[in-house]
Structure formats: structure tokens, C-alpha cells
Amino acid sequence: MGLALLCVILLKLVAVLIAGLLTFQLVHMLAKLVHVTRLNHRGAKVVSVALLAVLVITVLTLLGVGIGLFLRVGPDNLSGMLTQIASILDNLRDRLPASIASSVPDETENIRQHLVTWFQAHAGDIRIVGAHTARGVAHALIGMILGAMVALHEVTPQARPSHFLRALTLRVSRLTEAFRRVILAQVPISAINTALTAVYLVIVLPCCGVDLPFKKTLIAVTFLVGLLPVIGNLISNTAIFLVSLRISFAVAGVSLGYLVIIHKLEYFLNARIVGTRINAKAWELLIAMLAFEAAFGISGLIMAPLVYAYVKHELMEQDLI
Asked: Residues near 217 by Cβ (< 8 Å), separated by ≥ 6?
């Protein structure tokens, strides 16, 4: 299983794994909700689970397409936002008050230039992601189909599985349990964080006479990156702060203060919901995510909470920790 998880990251199959696990969990949850397990006839169980799998795949596909279009169309799309952030960073000293700008050391110029280059490069990438998007969608669809097949296998198990198959099934069940605890537990946390951020961007700021650009993109990004424990909130907060600098430093300061309060709430929820479910502190997850990001990039960052929760579960089951 350890080798398989490593291969998933190195072979860039994270989308396949996440989509498969998500589909399996949703089908499993829906099957329990409609009491499929109570059906006595094996054929009826298979048909019911198959229909649920088709429903889940259809809904997830439409949702993914909708989010993609939402972020790519319109004047305040994701590409435009990244370009705007790059422009703000490029003129950062001009946007800061003189007292603060004069205290910014010259050594930060290289860091600022790297940030500008990164945002400009990724803004360009979004404009030309046609082929990569098609590949990602194909991977996600394959993953959803595999997840549905695993869910179907649950209602048609092998009569006398081998020792290897039993051990493999146990590893997979622990991996899916880790996914359920970490990823699905993060959804309500991200939803609460996004709702509070939306209230600030759509209601509070306009009531104060401030029309912040890229509101819809910032809200969508807040939810998506919020699915990453701990570090996701920092990413969205940074984006909102930098976009707020386009209006004024005062607006950026108020935004930062509001987001810090939300961050404290998210940190508490993360510790209570995610931390208690996998018996881990927020700082443990953060260290794992930083290490995986340094080793494997964005794929490692996404996989870190899942791998950490799975490995910790395995070690606890063996009484090693």
C-alpha cells in the first residue's frame, strides 16, 4: 500500500485516487441511507448500487464541469485574478504606506519577483490548460468508475478470499476510512469558512462602499483550497488580502483582521473535527503537508493529509504508537 500511494503521487494519478475514493464513499453513504443492505436478493442489491453509482458519477461530473466554467468565464475569472495579483505584487511598495514601505528590506525584492513570476506563469497556464484539463477530467472519470466498481464489489464479495486478498482488502478499507475522516470532514469546515468569507465580500464590504473585484472567484477558491487542512485557509486569506490592496491598504488591513478571526475559528474546527477523528493535532498535519509539498509538489500537498491519516491508523492498529 505504501508503494501504491507513492506511485499515485509520482505517476500523477492523484485525481484518479481522490475521485475513486470520493465516489466509493458517496455510494456507500447513499446505500446506507436508502437501506440497500437490507435487500435480500443479491441481484436487487447489485442493481441498486449500480444506479446509485451512476447517480453519483453524473452529479460529480456536472459539478466539476460547473466549477470549471465558473472559474474560467466572465471578466473576474481565475486567470484574471492571478494576473491582477501579480500586478499588485509588482507594485507592492507603491501600495503600502510610506512608513511601512520604507521598513521593507531590499532583500525581499527577490522574493517578491519570484512571487510575481509564479503568479504570472500560473495565470498563463490557466489560459492553455485545454489538454491538461481533458486529461484531468479523463482521470477523474476513470477514478469515479473504479470507485463505483469497488462499491459494487462490496455487495458481491468473493466467497473464499485468499490471505493476500484479505490483507489487501483490509489496507484499502483503512485507506477509505482515512479519506472519510480527513477529506469529508474538511467539507463542513470549508463550507463554514466560505460562508463567512462570502458574507464579508458580498455584504459587509459593499455596505461600507467598497466593491472588491473577483468576488465570485475568491469565494470559489476559498471553498476549494479550504478542503486542504490548515494551509488552505492561508492560501485563500493571502489572495483576498492581495486583491484588497488594489483598493487601499486600509481595506487590505480590515480584510486581514476579519480573515484572522475566521482563521482562528477554522483552526478550532479543524482541531475538533479533523484532529479528533485521526487523533492528530493541526501542527502534525501542517508538518506532513509541508514535507510532502517539498518532496512532491502540489500532488504531495493534496495527498499529505490522507497519507498521514492512513499511516497513523496503521501504526495505531499495530500498537506501534
From this structure: 71, 76, 77, 78, 80, 81
Q: Is 101 left (phi over 0), alpha (psi -120 to 50) or beta?
A: alpha
In the chain, at which residue ranges do the beta strands (DSSP E only) sit? none
- Higher pLDDT: 92 or 142? It is 142
C-alpha cell of 309?
A: 491519516
Q: How far apart are CA 263 and CA 269, in angstroms?
A: 10
Is-contact 232 282, C-beta < 8 A? no
Asked if the model's pLDDT at residue 129 lies above 50, the reply is no
pLDDT of 266-312, one tens digit each?
666 665 666 666 666 767 877 888 888 888 887 888 888 889 889 98
Say if residue 157's pLDDT is above 80. Answer: no
CA distance 132 to 138: 10
- The angle that helices 185-198 and 215-225 make with each other, rounded to 10 degrees, is 160
Contact by Cβ (8 Å): 22, 31: no
C-alpha cell recorded at residue 153? 464489489
Q: Where are the alpha helices (DSSP H) in 1-107?
A: 2-10, 14-33, 42-72, 78-90, 92-95, 98-101
